[in-house]
Design brief:
There is one protein chain. The N and C termini lie far apart (70 Å). The protein is an alpha/beta fold. Helix 4 packs parallel to helix 5 and helix 8 packs across helix 9. The chain is built from twelve helices and twelve strands.
Length: 318
């Protein structure tokens, strides 16, 4: 009789325990990527996919092809699928309140990666992980200010290739750059237009700048390396020497930029690290477990002038 009761007790306890599979169920993340517009973005996507696999996280990945409406559809799809956490790199800053309120109502935490948003209620997302774009713009401008100080009487005409209109990096990189150069009235931005963060559009816009011959172009400030590389092609086709006739400053720090610097065609690139995958996966685990996290997590990044390109190139992972 005692043995029978013991067996029943053990059986009841076993039935009360969750199945082994339930204990090992992987966390599911829905991730909406901006697109594949640049070397940086390609490296960022690869990092996220590899890190998810390494962390045992089931990743549902969607490429928005640089369209906000595609990201909204993806996020709503993730809500319907009841994923554990949503992460996305927003195409633009505004227009997210409605869909993020839907995620919040569904009890699904949201993590912003690479780019921030402007929302009416900061609680609509848990945390942001990425770069300080304003500081990147400042770094680019400080490098130019140091160069300009060597010829203090020279006036420099700057053309600017902006990123996607309305995107956080485009807004902030412009803001940071202008904040620093305003202290030197001899540095003037004479033309500024979006190159959409792509190589093809960067070349197209630079061709347009070069055709406007009312003022000599001394400096090109590109919001990313891909646009700068496209602009280099336009400058060469115009019979000029990039890096010499026109000083070129860009942001991202991709291998293509280091190769251009090594060839003497680009003068400096400000680093923006795309390899956020491992940090993002750990952050997702912390968020789902309701562990406290910082509202904004930024990464440390450097400035690489052409002089160090040859030495640094073998070390680049993207």
């Amino acid at each position: 009789m005692i043995k029978l009761i013991a067996r029943r007790t053990l059986l009841a306890a076993a039935l009360a325990l969750p199945a082994v599979g339930a204990l090992a169920a992987p966390l599911t993340m829905g991730f909406s990527q901006v697109g594949a517009e640049s070397e940086w973005r390609t490296a960022n996507s690869a990092s996220i996919k590899a890190a998810a696999k390494e962390a045992g996280i089931t990743l549902k990945f969607a490429d928005a092809q640089q369209k906000q409406e595609n990201q909204v559809k993806a996020i709503r799809s993730y809500i319907a699928q009841k994923v554990d956490v949503i992460a996305f790199s927003p195409v633009v800053e505004s227009g997210w309140d409605t869909v993020l309120k839907e995620a919040q109502k569904a009890g699904i935490p949201v993590i912003l990666t690479d780019r921030a948003v402007k929302v009416s209620d900061p609680s609509l997302y848990v945390t942001f992980i990425g770069s300080d774009f304003v500081e990147e713009g400042r770094k680019a401008a400080r490098w130019l200010m140091e160069r300009a100080a060597k010829t203090p009487n020279a006036a420099l005409n700057i053309v600017e290739l902006q990123g996607t209109v309305g995107s956080a990096p485009a807004i902030d990189r412009k803001k940071g750059f202008e904040e620093v150069i305003k202290s030197n009235p001899k540095l003037q931005i004479i033309r500024s237009q979006s190159g959409e963060f792509t190589r093809a559009k960067g070349k197209e816009v630079m061709e347009s700048f070069l055709k406007q011959r009312d003022k000599k172009i001394d400096v090109l400030y590109a919001h990313n390396d891909d646009m700068a590389i496209g602009a280099i092609q336009a400058i060469e086709e115009a019979g000029l020497k990039p890096g010499q006739d026109i000083v070129i400053i860009s942001i991202d720090g991709v291998r293509g930029a280091f190769e251009a610097m090594k060839a003497g065609k680009l003068n400096v690139t400000v680093e923006c690290n795309p390899l956020l995958g491992p940090q993002l996966m750990q952050l997702a685990k912390d968020v789902v477990a309701k562990r406290p996290v910082e509202k904004r997590i930024t990464v440390n990044e450097g400035v690489f002038p052409a002089e160090v390109a040859a030495k640094e190139l073998p070390n680049r992972k993207y």
